[in-house]
Structures are given as structure tokens and as C-alpha cells.
Design a protein that fits this description.
This protein is mainly alpha-helical. Helices cover 85% and strands 0% of the residues.
Length: 127
């Protein structure tokens, strides 16, 4: 489970970095809080942060479930694939929202793996 804890910490550090990027874009473009609109570049960074938060709510519990009931190493690998996907998503979306698909797909693949492996592991534990 130590590897999974490290992956969760890395994912949260990444999210903190995305949050810092939102703050910088807010300052750069004069979008005062609590506003979340007003400049397209700011809005892209804001959406990256919010979309990542939405995914973390799903991925972090799945990492724990998959790590407890399946193979912790593969759960950690899938978690790292998710983090890589989110970084690709960040780079693509920040440049052009139409370029976010690769990163989304990589992260989604990792999430589906965590879901499936976790579910199979829990079902096997019940048997």
C-alpha cells in the first residue's frame, strides 16, 4: 500500500500545481475571485483544475480499493498512468481545448482498469 500512498501524494501534488496555475492565470488576466469567467485562457486553466478534481474524487477511492483487493503494484502503475494522462490533458487543454482528448483517454483507461480490477478483487474476496 506504500506505493499507492506515494501515487496518491503525487496526484495531489499535481493537483496543487494545477491550482497554482489557476491562481497565476487569474492574476495575469485580472479575473478577481469569486469570478470563474472573463478570459478564455484563465477559463481553460480553471477547467483543467476542476475536471481534475472531478476525476480525483473517483480515482483516489478506486486506487485504495484496487490496492486492497487486487494487486497493489498494478494499482500503483495504473495510478501513475492516470497522473501521466492528467499531465497530457493539462498540456493539451492549456493550448487548445480540442487537444485534451489524448490525456483524457489515457486517464480514463487507467480509471477503467482501477474500477474493473477493484471490482473483481472485491467480488473474489466475498466468495
Amino acid at each position: 500500500m506504500e506505493m499507492i500512498a506515494i501515487v496518491i501524494i503525487v496526484a495531489l501534488i499535481q493537483f496543487m500545481g494545477f491550482s497554482i496555475a489557476v491562481g497565476r492565470a487569474r492574476k495575469k488576466h485580472g479575473v478577481s475571485a469569486p469570478a470563474t469567467t472573463g478570459n478564455e485562457e484563465f477559463e481553460r486553466y480553471f477547467r483543467i483544475q476542476q475536471n481534475t478534481l472531478e476525476q480525483l474524487v473517483i480515482v483516489i477511492p478506486l486506487l485504495a480499493i484496487c490496492g486492497l483487493f487486487s494487486d497493489p503494484l498494478w494499482a500503483a502503475v495504473a495510478g501513475l498512468v492516470f497522473v501521466i494522462g492528467r499531465q497530457l490533458y493539462y498540456f493539451g487543454y492549456a493550448k487548445d481545448p480540442n487537444r485534451r482528448s489524448l490525456g483524457f483517454g489515457v486517464g480514463f483507461f487507467a480509471t477503467v482498469y482501477l474500477f474493473a480490477a477493484g471490482l473483481v478483487g472485491v467480488v473474489q474476496a466475498l466468495a
